[in-house]
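An example makes the point: we let one protein speak, the chain in one-letter code, the fold tokenised, and here it is:
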Amino acid sequence: MTALPRHVPSSTDLPDVRWLRSSYSTGANNCVETARPKTGRWAGLLAVRDSKDPAGPALLFSPESWAGFTAAIQS
């Protein structure tokens, strides 16, 4: 079995996802957006992209990796 990529070259390669932005965002497009692909080879992962570049690349994380990251920055 081959490993999944850790990113996709363009967020538009993730069809049918709903991108979410933090409620703490100021609307100045200086934040990240997240999405959870439900179908395809990225199902079950968390995608993260730069809100200033919605067609740009997205990083992919396992739910466990993302939970560990957010826990670390909160402490």
Notes: The radius of gyration is 13 Å.
